Amino acid sequence: MGFKLVMVPPQRPQTRAWAARVMDTVSGVNVVLPETEADTRRELRDADAAFGTLTPDLLKAAGKLKWLQAPAAAPAAGYYFKELVEHPVVVTNFREIYNDHISTHIMAFLLAFARDFHRYIPQQLRRDWKPARDDSGVIHLPEATALIIGVGGIGGEAARHCAHFGMKVIGIDARRKDRPEGVAELYGPDQLDRHLPRADFVIMTIPHTPQTEGLMNEARFRLMKKTAYLINIGRGMTVKLDDLADAIRNGVIAGAGLDVYEKEPLPADHPLWTMPGVLLTPHTAGFGPYLDDRRAEVLVDNCRRFLENKPLRNVVDKANWF
User: Fold this and answer.
1) Which residues, 6 or more positions from 182, have their beta carbon under 8 angstroms from its beta carbon?
2) Active site annotation includes 96
3) From the CB of residue 101, how many other CB atoms can be counted at a distance below 10 Å?
4) Catalytic site residue from 87, 95, 235, 295
5) Strand pairing partners for 280?
6) pTM to 2 decimal places
7) Of 49, 20, 18, 53, whose CA–CA distance to 37 is shortest?
8) Which of 1, 9, 143, 191 has its CA 20 to 30 A from that of 164?
9) Which of 10, 23, 31, 17 is CA-nearest to residue 296?
């Protein structure tokens, strides 16, 4: 028995390539690529599976739908609307494909702060030769602690890197019960406030969910060490940026490395752009080679699993968005 997979528009070169790869490698899958919403609605009527973003109207039209492949590891807010959460359709995503790229980006932030680059980069732009005292501006990593909020694929890989530098790693995770390599201690989210004061680096890899929105705010910044740094490469809505700016300005924490923001692009007049102790990248932590190949591999693998009635890869808890 085969099945029908609808690629929801807009159709892009990579989605067409993925569709061709599925049909070339998985016998029995009929992949359809409609161009308009009307055609999509018609094709979804007898579709078993879909790839992309559905609206409530399209979901209502999909009378047989059993599986939906989300087009991202963590789709934008609104993807998991009420009707989709309540629908029996199984949703899968693209998590795990960014582990190496994003964990490296985390370490770039961490090592920059540990070696005082956030001081020297602005000085370089001013041609200002002003070395700090040799006993200041450096965090000795074998004596430092990283608190990683979210120790899934990305957080787990970051933990391994941190441990390689001799750091103690504390993990906070809502699902994980086993300690991945490099994690010395693992706790649930209810223990976050207890362990924030121990960290020299607070690293956030968590998705945006109803539970994580605004997680790091004024009250939690006050629990951190004054010498600690926040690193966020997860989702921007998990950190209150105005609270963060106030915390850095007032010396509540030392600084932050951010790749994601409450509002993107970060407004040009936001104080974080020019604050000492802040390093910013424009949502590029996941950039790197082989990502399209990895997405295609997940899609192909799940097509095989669906065809063989096996458990799908990267199933999402729809109510919690990840």
Assistant:
1) 156, 159, 160, 161, 162, 163, 164, 169
2) no
3) 19
4) 235
5) 258
6) 0.95
7) 53
8) 191
9) 17
Residue range 189-236, pLDDT digits in tens:
999 999 999 999 999 999 999 999 999 999 999 999 999 999 999 999
Describe the strand order of the beta sheet including 90-92 as a list of residue ranges.
29-32, 3-7, 49-51, 67-69, 90-92
Q: Which amino acid is at 76?
A: A
> What Cα–Cα distance (Å) separates residue 298 from each residue in 8, 32, 72, 183, 260?
17, 18, 11, 27, 25
User: Is 283 considered catalytic here?
Assistant: yes
What's the sign of the alpha-carbon dihedral 157, 160, 161, 167? positive
Burial class (CB in 10 A: 0-12, 13-18, 19+), 149: buried
Q: Which of 21, 198, 283, 294 is catalytic?
A: 283
Six-digit token string for 239 = 């950190």
Three-state SS at 161: helix
What would the pLDDT profile of 7-22 be if each residue is shown by its tens digit? 999 999 999 999 999 9
- Domains in the chain, start-ordered, CATH in brackets? 3-96+289-320 (3.40.50.720), 99-280 (3.40.50.720)
